[in-house]
Amino acid sequence: MAKSITKEFTKGLWEEIAPFRLVLGLCPVLGVTTTMQNGIGMGLATTFVLLCSNILVSALRNIIPSKVRIACFIIIIATFVTVVELLMQAFTYELFQKLGMFIPLIVVNCLVLGRAEAFAFKNNISLSIADGLGMGIGFTLSLGALGGIREIIGTGTFYGAQVFGPSFQPFSFMVQAPGAFVCLGLMLCIMNIFGKK
Amino acid sequence: MREMIKMIVVLTVLSSFSGGLLAAIRNGTKEQIVNQELKFVKGPAILKILDGASNDPVQDRFQLDDNGVERSFFVGIFDGNPDTITFETSSVGYGDKIGVMVGINVEQDKISSICVTTHKETPGLGAKAKDDPDFSGQFKGLDINKPVKVNNDGGNVNAISGATITSRAVCLATTDACKIYSRMKPQIKDKLKSFK
């Protein structure tokens, strides 16, 4: 079966958009999306890890013995996660502080491991790059959208800027954990309605 | 057998490559991270402890060598008198190391206040050590010659409910700071003279 790069890239954006279609990697999706900025920051960090680990796993797929492949994936992923953590600490310290524990937790994000196992280990480098980028951008968009909605309703701001007048009473339930579940559920529902063929 | 050797070789090579890469990046970003911490974490904590000082405490600092460990002390000048210093100590909490900035009034030998700087405690529980002024406020005015303890351990600091380990760690770091201060008092006093 021939696979095209564009197809692999775009499937991550809609058809198989990770949090909504595959329902993968929900821990950060629910945890960090209290504001749009956090969501996008987390999404970009994950995209970086996803892309790098996909490239490396794909490049080494003929060398890695399949019996220890999961251990190798974890080493590769953990390395890049630590790289991201250090870089964020050095250059975007405020964001690093807000995301806190969730950065090291990218290691166990099943989306990253899932793509390494299900895709990069079986496909060549260019396809893996397309897959990693597509999935990562899809993930970033989902987190950004969810974060944006929760931020607007929960705190009355949009990417840090005030959107409503001072009389707006923020619905703070939305920025708490239960609000994340409700919001995600509603978004899943909408996605399913539109996605129906 | 050959397969086994291959597995071992691949894993070893991969791990050492990963270790090397991380060490390189760690070295490259070290200085930048220290600067960022000073700006975003330590700076605000120092200013909070030395609130109302007439100088800029982040700028007015001196280093002392404590048995091979370099420590930075930040000086607060109140009414023309450099009587409060603050420095950071740490101890292990529930998540990772907890950094605590401890301010000590040099003239009264009392803790002026403390502030948690870096931590990886659970949000909503241990993280309160940083955010809840009721907790950190309890340290104000404590005697530096007595170990600081939570009330479970016979001290008089009320632990944060659900976060005894964190509270203990903060107390431990504070006690540590007091010990360091007592040990280095002559040198500190000496250095402070230059700020008058």
Summarize the SSE layout with pairings.
The complex is a heterodimer of chains A (197) and B (196).
Chain A: H1 5-11, H2 18-22, H3 26-31, H4 36-59, H5 69-91, H6 93-99, H7 110-120, H8 125-155, E1 157-158, E2 161-162, H9 177-195
Antiparallel strand pairs in A: 1-2
Helix pairs in contact in A: 1-8, 4-5, 4-7, 4-8, 5-6, 5-7
Chain B: H1 2-49, E1 61-66, E2 69-78, E3 81-92, E4 97-105, E5 110-116, H2 128-131, H3 133-137, H4 164-192
Which structural traits does this protein have?
heterodimer, A: 197 residues, mainly alpha, two-stranded antiparallel sheet, 2 strands, 2% strand, globular, B: 196 residues, alpha+beta, 5-stranded antiparallel sheet, 4 helices, 44% helix
Tell me about this structure.
The complex is a heterodimer of chains A (197) and B (196). Chain A is mainly alpha-helical and 197 residues long. Chain A contains nine helices and two strands. Chain A has helices at residues 5-11, 18-22, 26-31, 36-59, 69-91, 93-99, 110-120, 125-155, 177-195, and strands spanning 157-158, 161-162. In chain A, strands 1-2 form a two-stranded antiparallel ribbon. In chain A, helix 1 runs parallel beside helix 8 (125-155), helix 4 (36-59) packs parallel to helix 7 (110-120) and helix 5 (69-91) packs across helix 7 (110-120). The mean pLDDT of chain A is 87. Chain B has one domain (45-195). Helices cover 44% and strands 22% of the residues of chain B. Chain B has four helices and five strands, in the order αβββββααα. Chain B is globular, with a radius of gyration of 20 Å. The interface between A and B is medium-sized, with 24 and 23 residues.
